[in-house]
Amino acid sequence: MGKKLSVMLVLVLVLVTSASAFANWTGTITLWDAPRWRDENDDQFHWVKAKIAEFEALHPGVKIELIETPWAELGEKLSIAIAGRAWPDIVPVDISGAINRTHLEQGVVEALDAYMTEEELEDFFPGALQAYTYKDKLYGIPMSMTVHVMLLNLDHFEEAGVEPPVDGRWTWDEFVEKAKALTFDSDGDGKIDKYGFSTYILQGYYEAWPFFYMDGGVPLVDNTFGFTSPEAISAIQKLVDLKFVHGAAPVEMGSADVGGTFRALAREGERYVAIQPWNTWAIATVTGEGVNHLPNVMVAEYPVGDLGKPVTIGGAGGWVVMHQSNKDKRDVVVEFAKFLSTPEEQYTFATEYGTFPARKSAEAMNPFADKPHMARAAQMVEHSVPLPEHPAWAQIDERIQAELQLIFAGEKSVEDGMESAAAQIQRLLR
Hints:
Distance between the termini: 67 Å
Helix content: 40-55%
Number of helices: 18
Shape: globular
CATH architecture of the largest domain: 3-Layer(aba) Sandwich
């Protein structure tokens, strides 16, 4: 009994000491976050604001400063902040873009292994942990996993008299034939006003990229630019032909207008495109309420090309803790990052934001019990491939996307555009 009492006293002392360590640090933590799902007041930051209020109540003297940052600007803004050594404390990025292996080696990002118990690590899916691991060290707390899928407006299919793909699976030829049949003049004025397909090209957005992989092409091979290969050229050409040869996509296809592209699929009163690729977050939007709700929607796979099997882009999202010179502050910052990543919060993200949990315990809560579209998307994870990892990936991506813009605008051939990209990118790969 005496031994047990001594152990208990030691544990209490440890807990008190730990609690006082947190209590002794006061100050401001800077959090960058991007828009999530909307509440009844159209606020896309309501979730993180609520979590900030909860954490501040638990830690008197700690203030969380939220910097609202659009997703499209986050990477570039963070790169500038790192260059000026004026980074935030927490940021929702992976470690393959604006944050990359060079930053990890330079100590710009905190390794979090010492803050994670074995029990906590076991609760994460291996693929989610791997996405934040470099040289056997963990550089982030995974929050979610995603894949890119095809969203189909079945009302458009019905209007055109076109059958959707069986079980959401199709070959490239089947996809083209349906896209052409879904392109027509709906009001009889002699002008095409309904289209089968559309997408967009923009740095940091990869909805179109599974098409580029479908014949076996990949962007980087042994530190060499790979989109000049016959497999990549043929795949990109097929997508270009969908617009310029088959006429099954609007002239805007390939533009950087992400919002306009989505509205063309889902916005009430517009909806002139039948098929679009999107990240899984879009499923929650089109199956929810509001002007972007699609009453009759289907989740489908990307079409199968010469590779002979479906392929999509997948990835993991989470929280990265930037370097902290003050250990006491670092402890609190990491505590806040973990506070944002509990199984309960990952369940919320799955049900509200359209992502897959990175934690097994969150998945065990069955977030998609009444969401068959998300359950279907979850099946596509087995076909997903990650984006390339390279210290200069942000610059490589920028150059690829710039040339793709010219290609999809009809200003360059696929071969010329990719050769131009190769000439610029190869210098970054040396």
